[in-house]
TrEMBL record:
Official protein name in the record: Cgl0159-like domain-containing protein
Coiled coil start-end: none
Taxonomy, superkingdom: Bacteria
Stored SUPFAM superfamilies: Aldolase
Ranges where the Cgl0159-like domain occurs: 36-292
């Protein structure tokens, strides 16, 4: 699909109501389709100022290129939907790329990458009422907990209330929990089995109900430890992809980790972004099809 930024700008500047109209007429589908699995492409990184992929610092900064890649990924068999912020989802709505897809809005984007307030991750993206108004299908939030940063408590409280509000609307919310720490001024997520286990336990118990809560979890450093880690909760879970590295070998190792973890009872699918949209080797089509094949 050839995407013209100028066409999008024309619609946005002259007919902003077209976004709401496109959302109203969009064909929806159940969260879980016939396959019983979920394959979501993620593109919510830019709103945190996280534009790097591998060694390229501004890889995700070209919006027309990103939209081309997203439309291509969404057109592949087995891809169920997309996770993104309002600006990207609304571009995709105008392009007609979200018909019959699961649309997941990104809710908290306040923890900007590299900021002193990164762990005070306030809800500056989609609100539950926005997701309802736009007829989107789910929300996603990030919960990074640093035991030495008081900002994490603010994030925990606002996360719990967001889960409550989503449940009131019977909207699924995907919670992405980490135990994190600052190393050399940079926030690093701990992917040890113990840390991931703790993060799952904490996230599962948030809010007044967990009826509509899903978990979005990383694969541990040692993939063989995931079976024990995922016994921490009965909540349905999807695996997150993240930045898998700079080389084709890194990409293959990530695929193998995902393959092992996808066989676990609570794991229902994958949510992967940069490694599929900007693969270390090969095309977007090949990367997406490979990931779908893992399911």
């Amino acid at each position: 699909m050839s995407i013209s930024v100028s066409d999008l700008v024309t619609v946005r500047s002259r007919h902003p109501e077209a976004i709401a109209e496109a959302a109203e007429r969009r064909v929806r589908r159940p969260l879980i389709g016939d396959s019983g699995r979920l394959m979501i492409v993620a593109a919510d990184h830019p709103a945190r100022g996280a534009l790097a992929v591998g060694g390229h610092k501004l890889a995700m900064a070209n919006r027309a290129d990103l939209l081309e890649r997203l439309c291509l990924a969404l057109s592949r068999p087995g891809v169920d939907g997309v996770l993104a912020t309002a600006d990207i989802l609304e571009d995709l709505l105008l392009l007609g790329a979200l018909e019959g897809k699961v649309v997941m809005g990104s809710m908290n984007r306040g923890g900007l990458a590299g900021a002193s307030f990164e762990l005070d991750d306030r809800f500056t993206g989609h609100r539950p009422q926005d997701l309802t108004r736009l007829r989107f299908d789910a929300g996603k939030l990030l919960l990074r907990i640093d035991y030495e940063d008081a900002g994490s408590l603010t994030t925990m409280v606002s996360t719990a209330r967001a889960i409550d509000e989503m449940a009131e609307r019977r909207l699924p919310v995907f919670v992405e929990p980490f135990i994190s720490r600052r190393t050399g001024g940079k926030v690093v997520n701990d992917l040890s089995a113990e840390a991931v286990t703790k993060s799952i336990a904490i996230a599962s118990g948030l809010a007044g109900t967990s009826a509509y809560t899903w978990l979005k979890v990383p694969v541990t450093d040692d993939a063989d430890e995931m079976a024990a880690v995922m016994e921490t909760s009965t909540l349905p879970a999807v695996l997150l992809g993240g930045d898998v590295g700079k080389s084709p070998q890194d990409q293959e190792e990530a695929y193998e980790k995902w393959r092992k973890a996808l066989g676990l009872p609570t794991v229902q699918g994958l949510v992967v972004g940069r490694s599929l949209l900007y693969p270390a080797e090969g095309s977007v089509e090949t990367a997406v099809d490979t990931a779908v094949g893992l399911l």
